[in-house]
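New to this. Please check this fold:
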Amino acid sequence: MLPPSVESALHALAIIATDAELAEATRARWRARGHGGRAELRELPGGLHKAADDLGAELPALTKSNPAALIALLDDPEGEVLLAWCAARHGDGGAARGGRDANEAPRSRDRHRA
């Protein structure tokens, strides 16, 4: 079970599965946040910037505390959001964060599906 705030943010951001420009803007926002906010944050329409920021803040801990709940999302539209977040965090090789979080989801998924 995921926290309601995470479920809400995932649901709000599921639109990025069908909008490539919005998906890139969301990934760019997460990359900028991953660099300590040094890069310019891209604005997102409506309340999506808050959903992206909230999700970006909560997902790192969830990759460690509840990876099974995140893996269960991979076949849903919300899974696209999770994969976009992983791609954004992995885009710089993870150097800013030690490189572990973005690499955890694929390994965890493989362990749980085996």
The chain has six helices and no strands. Residues 4-113 form one domain. The longest helix spans residues 48-65. Helices lie at 4-13, 20-34, 48-65, 67-71, 77-90, 101-113.
